[in-house]
User: Fold this.
Amino acid sequence: MSSNSRRILVAASMAAVGLSGCVMVPVASDGTPIYPLAAPAYPAVAVPVPTIQANGPNAGAPVTPRGARPVASLPPPPGVSELPAPAGPSSPASLQARLYPSNEVATETGMLAGTVTNMMTGKGFFQLNYKGEILSGEATRVPGDERHGLANAYGQRGTYMSCDYRMSTPYLGTGTCNLSNGAQYQVHIGG
Assistant:
């Protein structure tokens, strides 16, 4: 094999390896990317989903891949009548946040809405559109008090926000938020 042929083969191999990558980007429930990913990734769980036949004599019947057993037909272990729920952290929950004005500066803008992603680990991420500027940040529970938390966000034009909140459940909470321009809001999370 000539040296030119080897060079071409090596260059083609390097290009193939370099172009074969795959990137996963976390997204919010509305499809927008969540940046930055500061929390550790949670494990993905594979869930078998049977498909339904559209035509033929068995229309509407579940289809199981060849060689696989349907999940419903798996017997429980001997001596166990029902399988327990899997242990581990709950999956992240996407919640709505509504901010209601509580001073004159805030009434100029009116009510605001954003999204909060509770990672169920004591951390969360949120986004809010304030006068055309996207404020992004994170929320963290206060050590020693699993219901009390602090949140901070920052926008590309320099606007920042600080919030103090209290969760009554992992899906419901209230608090206050102060913006760098003096606007103050009462925040309702979830519901």
About this structure: The chain has a mean pLDDT of 75. The CA atoms of residues 86 and 95 lie 24 Å apart. Residues 3-18 form the longest helix (16 residues).
